[in-house]
Amino acid sequence: MFSLSLRRYLALGYLVSLAQASCDNQAPLDPGRFSRIEYDYIIIGGGTAGIALSARLAEDPSLVIGVIEAGTSHAEDPLVDIPSSSVVGNATYDWNFVSTSQRHAQGRRVSLPRGKMLGGSSGINGLAWGRASKPEYDSWSVLSGDGTWSWKGLLPYMQKAENFSAVPTNPYPGISGGQKARVSHDIPQEDGYNGPIHASYNSVYFQVVSAVVETLNGLGVKTNAEPQSGDATGVFNTLVSVDREEGVRSYAASTYYCSRIANRNYRVLTDAMVTKILFAKSEGPLTAIGVEFSANGQLFNVFAKKEVVLAAGAVQTPQLLELSGIGNRTLLQSHGITTLVDLPGVGENLQEHLFSGVQFKLKQGIQTFDLLRSDPAFAAEQRQIYQSTRGGLLAATDNAFTFLSLKGLVSEDRLHELLALFDLEDHTKSTGPLLRKQNALNRRWFTEDNVATVELIQLSRGIFNPTPNSSYVTIQGGIVHPSSRGSVHITTQDAFVAPEIDPAFLSRDFDTEVLLDIIKYIQLVAQTEPLASMVEEQTDPVPDSADDEIIRYIRAGSGVCDEMVHGTAAMASREDGGVVDGSLRVHGTANLRVVDASIIPIQMACHTQQTVYAIAEKAADMIKNQHIKPKYSG
Ligand SMILES: Cc1cc2nc3c(=O)[nH]c(=O)nc-3n(C[C@H](O)[C@H](O)[C@H](O)COP(=O)(O)OP(=O)(O)OC[C@H]3O[C@@H](n4cnc5c(N)ncnc54)[C@H](O)[C@@H]3O)c2cc1C
């Protein structure tokens, strides 16, 4: 979310070491030696889920765990560690995927960043740490047919991943003193306190943040002091995955991985690309025996006695399934790949949050992150503060997040209009049982208060061509339960060629119309006190635009995409178009699982890293408990 060109502000050599000592200067493993070890479990992808899962499995000394990661380790890298830094778009850290030309978004190709490094997207993400609302997790049990995938079933794992720090406290307007502290045991606490990932509040807030929160309160949006409690609606001070004492990003590689690095039963190979999964040539359910990978320009095979786990993320997990012969038979045949399991759901059901935004120039003298851009002396002072205290603006992020139900966004009449449009498109365009089940859930949520359809992110800075010496507030608004569905599929047998990603943005008019309402709502927020008194002018889109001009603005792409690709190996029954069952095994296989964001069956009204860590934590327990008896998933 927050992107500073850090190199401009930071003298890199000036920094002391930021990483945990135990993770520094690890010599990369030799791929040949790695391949000669026989593992119990091989995990493809050392990203958010892959590292969390593998580190938990390695707690059992009787298991030998191998992880293969395409990217490299960035331990001790300030561009990753410093919270205000961003490496999105930098090919050293980011796969830099782009979508196909989007027909309903004026043909633009939308950038879809994904982390290419040890720790995966947890190393490049915007640090927001949160959960969706309870009914959204409960819907997973409806879609998967497995009752353990629910709020109750996942909460212990979200807590297991989390190390919540109540200091500094939450200073947001609209929160009572007791709730602010969040340390009293009288208050229901849903946070986790002993997990690897640090979750903390910011220590610096701009005046404009309070103004936005108070304005929203005045418009009837409550401040939510406990957004982790199962009700994630309202405006709240988002937690961030920052180790506040050290002032650094807390992510899969710096925590889960570092804690296990000395284990002799844990081997993590970086800079190695898995090219396909290997299967036994026996009768019966398909049994994975290992993987083929490429490193230093050479191909290697490595073998697993028990299971292979795919954790390559929502773009590359379906790619590897298809390259390995699991997917839609017609598609595989067209690329000369023998079908081992005909599973048409692979790569389908792609869901992504789509955002647009409105930028406002603020009156002279109001401070925002823009000062780092336009005032070199101020930026130097902030670097100094970071050096000496690990605090200040370089350790800070944007924090005011608002999640609104659809009925909280629009009038009753407009809600009826939108629902009629949703129903029409559902009847005329929806195909497949999974989508119909998702639509039934979404349709209900649109009329209720406790699940958000809309997210607003307040950024204390300009992002659309900000001018020097000016300060801005930008409010991004997105639809977090979109009705458009996209896909990701291979176009060749070559694992090094990125798959074709088509999010089908705005392919449903419902999504476009809701985004229109979101832009209008943001404009209303800026015209309402106390924020109105701080705003000098709206810069983007042009103020007082007619509806059709705003829609053109949305399609033309001043908006941004929110990097939450999900659902491309959905946890749902085979008949419904799912790819994995409730134990995360790929349908039609004996011992191949998917553990990453691909399995999330329906888009969530939250930022998903905590949910992905919880999936990995739950999978680790399932695997530890079940590995003795591999079971056929039909
Ligand atoms: C730019 C950005 C900002 C985000 N901001 C937030 C935020 O603020 N808050 C939040 O909660 N969530 C955020 N997210 C989402 C969140 O980070 C992801 O949902 C989550 O990290 C996904 O985890 P994963 O394990 O599914 O995939 P990843 O963490 O992406 O892991 C996949 C790993 O597999 C590796 N890999 C892929 N193919 C191969 C192969 N063939 N061989 C070997 N390795 C391979 C990749 O290099 C990568 O390391 C953001 C995501 C992005 C990209």
From TrEMBL:
GO terms for molecular function: flavin adenine dinucleotide binding; oxidoreductase activity, acting on CH-OH group of donors. It comes from Polyporus arcularius HHB13444. FAD binds at V274. Transmembrane segments: none annotated. This is GMC oxidoreductase. Keywords: FAD, Flavoprotein, Oxidoreductase, Signal. Its cofactor is FAD. Residues 115-138, 313-327 form the Glucose-methanol-choline oxidoreductase N-terminal domain. Belongs to the GMC oxidoreductase family. Residues 1-21 form the signal peptide.
